[in-house]
Amino acid sequence: MAVSAIIIRSISMLFRVMLTEKTGAEGIGLYQLVMSIYLVFVTVSSSGISLCATRLFTELSAKGKPAQARYAIEKCIVISFIIGLSGGTLLFFGADFSAGFILHDTRAAPSLRLLSVSLPFLAVSACIRGYFCARRKSLPTSAEQFIEQIIETGVFITVFSFYHPSDLTQACCITVAGTTSAEVVSFIYSVICYRIDIGRIGTGREKADSLGRKMLPVMLPVSANACLRSGLSAAENALIPQGLCRYGFTQTMALSQYGIISGMAMPVLVFPSVIVFPFAALIIPEISEARAKDDYSSIKRMTEKMVESSLRYSVPVTIILIFFAVPLCEVLFGSSEAGKYLSLLAPVIPFMYLDSVVDGILKGLNEQTSYFIFNTIDSVIRVLLTVILLPVYGIYGVTAVIIISELLNTAMSVWRLVKVTSFRLSLVKAVILPCLLTLLFCLFAAVLPVIGTKASDVTVKILFCCIMYGIVCILSKKQNCRKITAVKKPG
Predict the structure, then answer these.
(1) H helices then E strands: how many in the chain?
(2) In the chain, fewer beta carbons within 10 Å around the N or the C end?
């Protein structure tokens, strides 16, 4: 999953670079506004039912009831289609209201209508991904996301090669048309993979007892959280350009600044998470199965390993991006301003990545209610801070909102995880040593002479820091294994 995610995110990053070239910072800002509304409907249509499918199939299979597990998945697929169709209908007829009243930019309405067509297909695909997650099969899901990204980028390149839009409204419609096409194709692929795999379990079906009572406690908190948090996130995204206008920017400048942060700096910030997020998704069925068997020692051991690994990975990523943010964004987007914002936001990476891991563990532990409460608090505070800080501090208010939000959300989630698992963590091994090692390698790379072009120079130096840190980690692990072996030997 991590390898495929790297490829998929790389294609997505290429897509961002091309979108910047074709539409500029203002075009990316408009696209991000459209996607902020669309993601509300995506999360509501997919998040709850996907987790529900994973949890139900895992728990029924762990109890030796494959026929009931198959029945549960089929019901989840039907429900997902109904939810997606309802969401698509609502988005289609509410596009003008969303664009005019929420986003304050009527240019977004045609793109929202195009995206509404994808929601039924997306919802079913998400449910099937939940099934494959429970089956511990990452290849179908990874291949589906790869196909989806290829189709989206391919449609964008093809249409822009033969047609030059006259304004940003048309350009945004072309961009989202690729997204809708990709969702339809990935739906077809997902259904084919599901039909092949489910047949290997058997053809028998058995009605699961109290299926509704099992689904609702899982589905409702997650769906409600997704609905509320996505709605507040959309409100926040809509308020950002308005807040920047009150600070003194023109509408074009405000949309461009918003596009630089959300469409350039944030994708680079999130890109390295391709290593962490697959583990955060796959830990859900493992924790859920251990919980079904009352194996709390395994839960504690997995939690400690996941948290430590997340920090030992994310801390070096933070140091590297702080050092190389500006030249990296200049190479990717031709924008040193995006690099400046990236370096300001890089310190939140350990909290952002850790939060995704902790959320996955909490979902496996049936802690959806805590997850819902924490994310609701976080989203409300983000909206309030956006209203208060942006008119006073401008674009730096945006970075402050992101930093405060990530710190708060992670602190609440970790507090709850400590309470339910009593896990322990060595800050020296997980944070201090990785920070010092990476800092040393980055300082050494910074004093090296320029290697070729700017692109090759920043690439080689980042790779150098990553490889050196990886070598130290491997050598350290081997040394620890030798010590353990020596202790276990008699006498």
Answers:
(1) 19, 0
(2) C
